[in-house]
Amino acid sequence: MKSEFLNIVLFEPEIPQNTGNIARLCACLGAKLYLVGRLGFILSDKYLKRAGLDYWDKLDIVHIENFEELIEKYPDSNFYYFTTKTDKIYTKINYKKGDFLVFGPETRGIPEDILNKNKEACATIPMRKETRSLNLSNSVAIASYEAYRQFTN
């Protein structure tokens, strides 16, 4: 069952410390965390556990084999795809409780085929042109707290 508050999706995350930080963030917000596809670590990884501190019992986390399964499970939900390959600023989205915020792996981002199928639902966090991308856990925090800000206003 999806979160009634917010759902964070990490597609093929690679770095355990980032995922641990994001897990801790999800526990603090009451967001559900979906890990989708092949992981770059095992869920018992000590760096993952350390980054999440003692919040693991406060977290709703699910590992799903592929992205299509997640979409099929929640066909009426809003999914927003965070990428550097769009001009739509993340603050221009009117987030609703229960939405899914999707983030790609640290080294590759969300696959082009997923982005191309969902162009209207893509969002970016602005940054200087000469930089490539933000850290994944920072991106998730920025986007999640914008949704939280909208929910609490």
Describe it for me?
The protein has 153 residues and is of the alpha/beta class. It has one domain: SPOUT methyltransferase, trefoil knot domain (Alpha/beta knot). The protein is 33% helix and 16% strand. It contains 5 helices and 6 strands, in the order E-H-E-H-E-H-E-E-H-E-H. The chain has helices spanning 16-29, 46-52, 67-73, 112-117, 136-152, and strands at 7-11, 32-36, 60-64, 79-82, 100-103, 122-123. It has a 6-stranded parallel β-sheet with strand order 3-2-1-5-4-6. The chain is globular and about 35 Å long. The model has no long low-confidence stretch (mean pLDDT 91).
Helix-strand topology string: EHEHEHEEHEH
Low-confidence stretches: none
Spatial order of strands in the largest sheet = 3-2-1-5-4-6
Helix segment tally: 5
Structural class: alpha/beta
> How many domains, as an integer?
1
Radius of gyration: 14 Å
